[in-house]
Specification:
The chain is mainly alpha-helical. It folds into two domains: about 260 residues, Glycerol uptake facilitator protein, CATH 1.20.1080; about 30 residues. It is about 75% helix and about 0% strand. The protein contains eleven helices and no strands. The chain is globular, with a radius of gyration of 22 Å. The termini are far apart. Belongs to the MIP/aquaporin (TC 1.A.8) family. Its main location: membrane. It is a multi-pass membrane protein.
Amino acid sequence: MSVHRRFIRQPLAEFFGTAVFVFFGTGGDCQVVLSTNKGVASSPKGDFLSVGFGWAIGLAMGAWISGGISGGHLNPAVTLAMAIWRGFSWKKVPGYIFSQVLGGIVGAGLVYGNYKQAIEIFEGGLKTRASAGLFATYALDYMSAATCFFTEFLGTAILVFTVMVLTDKKNNGKPPPGLLPLALFLVLLGLGIAFGMQTSFAFNPARDFGPRLLLTFAGYGKQLYNYRSQYWLWCPIMGPILGAQVAAAFYSLLLSGDKAEEDERQALEQEAAVVNVKSAALSAEQRV
């Protein structure tokens, strides 16, 4: 059992982390939107800021669950960026991405099962984009295809650029490992507030494609994939992947610390340690 556990532990951490991420996020979407129907609740339960908090809390909780085991990627765009720019093992990439998408399916499935009756009341027994948008992402009607792509590209680029900063071992300003999820919470909350309106801020292929597959199993049909032709592929999947690559490239090539800087930092730390030891020894001699 221990041999098999060693191989599945990291993908399982990505699965559970992503499932929790999507669980909180889609759960927040459902509560805010479904409660606007008088047949579901007496008054609305939240607003767009509540949606942002739901996704941000979900990301933080997912990162805390998986961070110490798998690194807490929770996002295929992040996994690919880490493989190309940070030396993450390519052997692990397929398992990570599969686990992230599967986690998205399960997290959305739990929420869908919990709110199924409310969704039926809200939709009047139909299955349309009104409730599909609680799980998968759709753009506002005025948005052009290029603007939709750019929004997802830009939002993911900012997210991954921040991840690169926060996880750079040569960055003296990075947070302690236990506080990284809190930083991710602030980043995603800020992105939701600044960029969330137009495309429902996927910024993560697994966050969109996993719930979209769940809706396929629930019987929503071709409408999930024929909306604006290939929107589901280019905006919530290719946009985040390409945005992540550009952000990782910019940080790695222009801002990431080099070996000389790292050697200088270590030398300064060693020098400070020697000074501290000498000061402690001198104080001991004076006391004697």
